[in-house]
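seq:
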Amino acid sequence: MTQESKLEELRAKHGLPALGMVAVVDGKPQEVGVVGMRKWEGTERVLPGDAFHLGSETKAMTATLIGQLIDKGKLTLKSTLGELLPETPSAWKATTIETLLAHQAGLTRDEPKGKNLLYLHQFTGPLMQQRARWYRERLADLPDETVGKYQYANAGYAILGVVVERLTGKPWEQLLTEGLWKQLGIRGGGFGAPPVVWQHLCEEKKPVPIDPREKADNPPLMGPAGRVHLPLGEWAKFVAAFADPDHQKILSPETMAALTTPVLGGEYNGGWVITSRGWGGGRVLTHAGSNTMNFCVAWVAPKRRFAALVATNIVGDEASKACDAAIGLMIRQYLKPGA
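struct:
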């Protein structure tokens, strides 16, 4: 049975509209495999060049932009919000870049106290202005949690987006499209709902398509935390830098190591969960992404110069099970653990 037929078997078994995967082997992206339809019960098959929503896989890209500014001497991991953004309220002035990258800055909510996510969709104007306004309103509240305690929060990475915009004078989106992505030769990417691969909710165990023309994503101002969509082969170009850190050119070796090493007693840093797996030769990086209508996951084994990436255009338990199984297919094919 071919890998594509195995992938199709997984897609059908778990009732997914589409499922795609790609591996990085010896530091190089391999051929993309995709099966299924762009839209549940639709007529257009998903293609290898179609973009999938990456959700919180976006965070590693935002962290990389921070890393590039570190390499340029614009800031350090110990730089504080008070130093970088003078308007920062006193309760947050001592917050460091390091605690934001590690989800230990005392943040939990994305929206100001008393507001909901819909409120953030109502912001208008240039995105840099939206983010600056959101920053002022959000940090008018006191910390939600004890600083130094791990609490996953999109708000921390949105703040990192405000930092990179302030230090460069350019929108976060432009820093990706004309900076990092161009540097890596990444094409076909964008922000928000993917243009042709429909997103789906799962209701009563059945996919429900969501029109991409609607506000079917996180608010635009939260982009640095999770609004990127990319074809899987293009996403692999980015992840390949982490799979083969000795040969990547987007960060200095020192900064790459600093962003992929556990800090402050936790397991999270730089958009990655840092853990260990035997098949990876020890330390590995992983992260999942979802905007509640898509799901994807990445596993990276730098000691093996290997990565496995999977995405689907629906969310739910079956989506995560299928993605985990597809990761296993690639690990067995390329690393042959136990052989």
